[in-house]
Amino acid sequence: MFKRSITADLYAPKNIADELDAKSPGFQYYWRRFILDNWQKYQLPLAAGIFLVVLCIVFLLDHIRTVAQQELSLMIQRQQLQIQALQAEMKQRAIKQFTQNDAVNDVNNDDELAIPEVKYWGMMRVGSSTKALIEINHHQKLLKVGQEVDDGWLVKNFDQELIWFESKQGRLLKISMEVPS
Questions:
Q1: In this predicted structure, what is the pLDDT of residue 67?
Q2: Same domain assignment for residues 13 and 99
Q3: How many CB atoms lie within 10 A of CB 141?
Q4: 131 touches 124 (CB < 8 A)
Q5: 129 in a domain, yes or no?
Q6: How many domains does the chain have?
Q7: Could you tell me whether strands 129-136 and 118-126 are parallel, antiparallel, or unpaired per DSSP bridges?
Q8: What is the pLDDT of residues 54-94, one digit of tens each?
Q9: Measuring CA to CA, how many Å separate 101 from each of 98, 107, 111, 152, 173?
Q10: CA dist., res. 65 & res. 55, Å (int)
Q11: Whole-structure pTM over 0.90, yes or no?
């Protein structure tokens, strides 16, 4: 049998030093000199090219932002027109419904004349209770269910979109939420 002694010399990398010696300092000097010469020769055109590319990118991003802004403004205008059309339709329906009720209930003329001008602006959480924000004859009030409004009208119920009032005679009045314009 052969005995073999394990030493550090057996595992030392021999080829690393050989590769370093293979590249002469003249080769490194040539490449370094080549890069520096070309940089000095083309420094101004490279800097100008980089500047122009950055400038083009800035103009492109500005154009994209402008186009997106125009599209957004068009969408907002369309929605405003839709809202105005819906408000006009709601007013026509309310007037039509009011005139139909007026024709049907000639007996309750005194009661209809006592209907206040009410605008429902939505619900608000006040403390531990939820109250309805309404505007009566240009005065805003927070009311809860069962509270008297004006001239014998009580708040019967309200939700996100509608509020119901009940008169002392038992008539119900339903008002939809106002959309601010």
A1: 96
A2: yes
A3: 14
A4: yes
A5: yes
A6: 2
A7: antiparallel
A8: 999 999 999 999 999 999 999 999 999 999 988 888 888 87
A9: 5, 11, 12, 19, 11
A10: 15
A11: no
